[in-house]
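PROTEIN SPECIFICATION:
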Amino acid sequence: MNYTHKLFYIMSNNIYLKKGLDLPINGTAAQNTKKVIVPDVVAVKPTDFRGLVPKLLVREGDKVLAGTPVLADKMSQNILFASPVSGTVLEVVRGEKRKLLEVRIKADANQEYVDFGVKKVSSLTAGQVKESLLAAGLWSALIQRPYGIIADPETKPKAIFVSAFSTAPLAANVEYALNNQLANIQAAVDALGKIAKVHVCVNAANESATLFGKLQNVTIHTVSGKHPAGNVGVQIHHIAPIQKGELVWTISPVMLAAVGKLFTTGKYDVKRKIAVTGPKAVAPAYVEGYPGISIKDLKEFYNEGENLRFISGDVLTGANVGAEGFLGFFDNQVTILEEGDKYELLGWAKPFRCKLFSASHTYFSWLTPNKKYDMDTNLHGGPRAFVANDVYGKVLPMDLYPVYLLKACLANDIDKMEKFGIYEVIEEDLALCEYVCPSKIDIQQIITDGIALMLKEMC
């Protein structure tokens, strides 16, 4: 990126992105809340947090309240992870080499909360804001770039970024999910503003109606374009690109509301509206629940006995948790798809397949641009060597060379990883590159491995 372009991006509050791709997938959640989930069991999962080495703070049978710490970070033991519900620790689930996978908590019928005390944000210092978030287990809501790890409380970022909309496939509508949370969100940005300047990016198509446009004491940026325009990493790249030695923090709108509720109510309250979506979702809609709820709590949204994939998050970046799994800490979306285990003979040679979408003109789906598709998990091909073309560049609205970055990660070449932009991306930023990849390269896993190497060697 040359200096002229960089200066333009830093000074501009209006960002128009020409590159990207919106997936035409069926299963958008209707904007109504179908049920309030009273969970039986919820799970706190250390695997939701990159780089976390968890220390267990509870035992099976212990009584906990919503806000009671159940885990700590061994590397920074003041960073705590709290129970989202009150109840009893039911089970500690471990994997290979006794790796801690889940702390399962049997929830009470009536929820009780740890009282952290209501605080007047205007009278707090930056240090007191940090102490409050650390004590309540909400520090983990702050994600640090580079690398997408939990923010280090001993550092100061150059800015804090919030993407107030999502362009991911079938993503929960932020305005609907948080339509009564303006006061809490304002309290949160006022608190975080004590630490660093807060930037909020809103959708240009909804600028006048968005509740985030009503926020005070923040810098508002408008963004327009196709996915991944809603990715906070893409927005940072066009506002204040991350250079070596610089840090920025990010926080999602859902967690921003939870931070605000900590100050306005004194409670660790991470309850949220969750969009149940996907081609195989029955009457997709919203539910009200907690992070860590079981997929079983959503059984009225799918037909048991079908071969389905349950994704915590969206189809591009979410985790396949299975029918026995639990919602991730940061997620407010579940996507239900059919497993792609049905294959066609010479399918690649049938351009008239009207039930399949192609990002290129391989099929004639481009003739029906408004059509939605019942997508499944079939790759429609197999892995092969990188094909040298500009297919990634058509969907990545960042001034990067993704093929060179990926090859640097594969070669474990740290110098070239730095040169080609490892500081600016995490997996979600290149997820569309993986979707359109003609070679079926597992691009997100390559980025995961590259970031793991950087954390090992550089931090």
Q: What stands out?
A: The first helix runs from residue 3 to 11. Confidence is low (pLDDT under 50) at residues 1-11. The chain has ten helices and 20 strands.
